[in-house]
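Teaching note: in complex prediction, the entire set of molecules is handled at once rather than each chain in isolation. The prompt given to students was simply: 'Predict the structure of this complex.' The entities are:
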Amino acid sequence: MKYKAFLIKYAEIGIKGKNRYVFEDALCDRVAEKLAKVADGFEVVREQGRLKVNCPDVYDYDEAIEQMKKVFGVYEICPAYVIEDASWDSLTKGVGEYVGERYGNTPHTFKVEARRSDKSYPITSPQICADMGEYILNNFSEFKVDVHNPEILLYVEIRNYAYVYSDKVKGLGGMPVGANGHAMLLLSGGIDSPVAGYMVSKRGVTIDAVYFHAPPYTSERAKQKVVDLAKLISVYTGPIKLHVVNFTDIQLAIIDKCPRDELTIIMRRYMMRIAEHFAYEKKCQALITGESIGQVASQTPQSLIATNAVCTLPVYRPLIAFDKQDIVDIAEKINTYETSIQPYEDCCTIFVAKHPVTKPYLNIIERSEKKLTGTIEALVEKAINETEIIEVSE
Amino acid sequence: MDNAATTRVSEAASETALKIMREDYGNPSSKHIKGFEAEQYIKKSAEIIANTLKCQPKEIIFTSGGTESNNMALCGAALAMKRSGNKIISSCFEHASVYSPLISLKDFDFNVEFAPVDEMGHIKLDGLLNMIDDQTTLVSIMYVNNEVGAVQNIAEISKAVKAKKSDIVFHVDAIQAYGKYRINPKKEGIDLLSVSGHKIHAPKGSGFLYADEKIKLRPLIYGGGQQKNRRSGTENVPAIAGLGEASREAYEDFDQKIVHIYSLKKHFSERIHEVQGTHLNAIPKTINGNSCDLDINATAPHIVSVSFDKIKAEVLLHALEEKGVYVSSGSACSSNHPGISSTLQAIGVKKELLDSTLRFSFSRYTTMDEIDYCIDVLKELVPIYSKYTRK
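The expected output is the structure of the full assembly:
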């Protein structure tokens, strides 16, 4: 069957009052960007609480659906059959064609749902349901009506033209990227941080990212893995500016001056500081991390106090109460898991102490950090100045 | 410094390969003149190689490289002889392309045993001979170990093995040996010999298996019956011709080339002691602890294995990389799978050094200046990187 249109339904952004156009425009743009990859000539328009996609004559249906399924803010996609002339005879003929092509005359139960946004249409909605039902019963001997549990729910919508649809493909939900500000993701090569970025982006937040590498302790392949991960989530989040910070000298200075069991905490505090620097530079409203309570020593509630203390921006931690397996499940769903588990060392693990502190006191950490005064400032400045920015997109 | 991983394709080999890709690109099975011309390249290549091994051209089967040659030899011979017996013996420090096919043969009811080696990387012959029973059909031994450069006395092992059971088929993985040693399979009692092209300045995707004409092999790849049904698939003519050229070059002025590579190793082995906390592996030491007294029959001319105190091999590897020196930790083929090298364990390298060992390997293009540069860089880097370690 050739669908000339898709109806895209959205759930949450319908309640946004006067800001609604911001969300709808963002959704229109994101859907149009994705469909441009499928074929030329798709047209995405706003239409009374939903989007309508007008399709070109030639395109790959499955590919179009797949692309729209990757857009945050899409609640449901309904492939629709368009009937240009909504007059009753033309309408019944069109609906008959649709049912014939889509299902044939095979045993099914059905129900008609009609909506008439063109209130000047001479027949009321309940009447359309009844009359259309009768028409189908007359033309498809195997069809039976079931108003409570129909196998086919046949939607007929009448505007200055009409469309009919019965299929619904679930989208991702959430809100369109670009509708809710901008945040800076601390992206490591692990399983959690790509998932965290995905989840925040799903709420409509535009994302850029920071990665800390430590050559020669971490390899070019470890860096490529992070670029690959950014690329994988950019399928959902849109283009990401990945800031690659050389963290080696800072890390070695911390090893030289501070107690080894506090290394990871102090390192993370510097990571947050540098990430926040880039966040302000990019006019972000938040940082994002993949931290989850108690997963490792640096993610205990006490450790989180210590890392959080250096930030002035809010830190979004969408995985904070997630079990590891639940995070893995999402990573698998968004296709980052396989890349995340490639065995390259990252800078958090190379010098990690056998027994790092799990309940650091902020004042003790701050006291240890004072020993870095005089050396660290120049190293941080150098790391920031020499940061490489990689534009990543799918 | 990573020529045991791969080598630069020589000019002659690459020019030949390029000419075939651009001009003489016929399918060797085609009946017309273009096919004939392509076939001639293969024939000529087989003749050159046969000449280096003092065997017949028909005993050369071209493959996609060392891994395929080893698979073809082991699976092909084991399956062909299954009626006579089901026991295969190898050594405990073989390359994965020997080890893995042997393990997979266990699924086909083969019994596989691995003979021990001493700390110089030489097979303990008694141990090997004791494993031979009346079910044993195949013995596979590597000529030069890829990680530490230990060399086996192949002729002696083969003779002892065949003295114990005369119908045993003797396979040799010569991937690190061909081009570095004069190999005469007929005299050394070698029935099957695996070679890879890209280790000897030929293109990747080239290699061959020498198979004595009396040896039966069950093919691994079926199809159009190319190479006398032993390996179907249109022959990779550019790679095969490149391999022929590279083989010819390898054995041209052979002694002079080997003396050069060997002098690099001697120089490297002498100077490495200038770097703090280093240990040479699988090289016999003289009384004063210096290891310049090398025996080419015991240790290969192009491979040196060095362990470093208190440095993680991969860190030093990446630090060297920043200075333009490329080396391997473990063998490049198995470096993707972090895990401790079974070769190093087999030769008794201390546990704390297993993860601190690098392989330096040379080619005829390597210069003495490059060796000196490498040592100088190590002298600079090792003190820095041994300072920061995991606690």
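Point out the following to students. Chain A touches chain B at residues 215-220, 252, 255, 260, 343, 345, 350-354 (CB under 8 Å). Residues 258 and 368 of chain A are 6 Å apart (CA to CA).
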